[in-house]
Design brief:
17% helix, globular, ten-stranded mixed beta sheet, Immunoglobulin-like, single chain, 1 helix
Length: 151
């Protein structure tokens, strides 16, 4: 009985390891670079996060959620011009094309951090995690930048 239980645990551990490895292999096709967070203006506790997301794989991917270590409320957003007015609206996902790039940037697609839990100062980093449509995640360090150095 002990041998059978030990064998069951070994098989279960192997299955979990292979599942995690498969998820990691899928995630490796999507990478994040040049991530940054805008320093909040005037003591506000809301800001945006930006990055370049690249998909080297043959399958399109979508970012379906995001988290940050400095905020419990994080949303995917888009800024766009509607009848001469810039409007920001939440989105359910960002599409990252196969063999393509999605740029999260001011005035376009971005990640909003609400109710930031501490003062963010230029030069420090924020841990940003993106969740993909396959359930995998990508974490990156996003540098806090002053408003004047947004590019």
């Amino acid at each position: 009985m002990t041998l059978r239980r030990s064998l069951s645990f070994t098989v279960a551990a192997a299955v979990l390891t292979l599942t995690a490895a498969a998820a990691q292999a899928q995630t490796q096709t999507v990478t994040v670079r040049d991530a940054w967070v805008r320093e909040p203006m005037g003591g506000r506790n809301v800001t945006g996060a930006f990055a370049i997301v690249e998909n080297s794989g043959a399958t399109p991917r979508s970012i379906v959620a995001a988290t940050a270590d400095v905020s419990d409320k994080v949303e995917l957003h888009e800024m766009k011009n509607e009848n001469g007015m810039m409007r920001m609206s939440p989105l359910k996902k960002f599409d990252v094309p196969a063999h393509g790039t999605l740029e999260l940037k001011p005035g376009s697609f971005h990640v909003m951090l609400f109710d930031v839990t501490r003062k963010l100062v230029a030069g420090e980093t924020v841990r940003l995690t993106l969740t993909l449509d396959d359930g995998s995640t990508i974490s990156t360090a996003a540098q806090v930048r002053k408003m004047g150095t947004m590019q």
